[in-house]
Amino acid sequence: MIDWHILEANPFFQGCTEEQLRGLARHCRQHYYRKWEQIHEAGSPSEKVYIILKGEVVVQIEDAHRREPAYLDVVVFTGELFGFGEMMLKHFYTNALARTECALVEIAKEDFIQHFMSVPRLRDWVLTSLSELLRIFISKATSGGTNELALYLYRLGQESGKVSNGKIYIQKKVRQAEIAAALNLSREHVTRLFARLRTEKNVQFNRGFPIIDQKWLERVVKDKDLAASIRY
Predict the structure, then answer these.
(1) Does residue 99 sit in the same domain as residue 148?
(2) What is the span of the domain harbouring residue 99?
(3) Buried/exposed code over 7-31 (b: 16+ C-beta within 10 A; e: otherwise)
(4) How much is the pLDDT for 151?
(5) Whether residue 135 sits in one domain with residue 98
(6) CB–CB of 52/98 below 8 Å?
(7) Within 13 Å of residue 200, how many CA atoms lie on the same side as its CB?
(8) What span, in angstroms and rounded, lies between the C-alpha atoms of 139 and 73?
(9) Strand pairing class (102-108; 28-33)
(10) Can you tell me whether residue 37 is helix, strand or coil?
(11) What is the pLDDT of residues 71-98, one digit of tens each?
């Protein structure tokens, strides 16, 4: 077990009582990983849920069936969880690697389900996070890439866009290869999507800087909460 104060300092446990934290700490173990050390491997038994105390972890899926290598890389940061999306499965479908030196809290999935999920505050967080993952999957499965690209452009507009005469001028140069990697789509597919958007005059480029039709983007991106929750 670990000192319950370690849990108290973690954002995931905000709102928990001291009694709850003391009880949960009994089911936690602390483990350290070197940079790029494997934490779990795809196909290995799904036995733990992890909380990052210090460092960064990359969670990765490799798709060997596509014409070019494709990866889904998600970086998980200090204070965040990973592994909870796979805790009801027999095996992990992702690889997890320490992107930096890491200190992790490791919880046996049986303990996580029995004890952590019995705390309403924690259960609500987990279920909300799983619902967001489902929303992303549904958006991806039903759009052929259009929704993902629109969400990505919406985020760019929020972060570095200037609006003028119904156009959003992105102040950041972007390359289609980078967008393809961020969205886990092939370069060819992203090229086709942008070609169609150019023809429809919804997106243009000026020396690598996107210019987006504001009305089109507002019409396509209906789920603003989803756009705000995605990390690229």
Answers:
(1) no
(2) 4-141
(3) beebebbeebeeebbbbbbebbeee
(4) 87
(5) yes
(6) no
(7) 13
(8) 18
(9) antiparallel
(10) coil
(11) 456 788 898 999 998 998 999 988 999 9
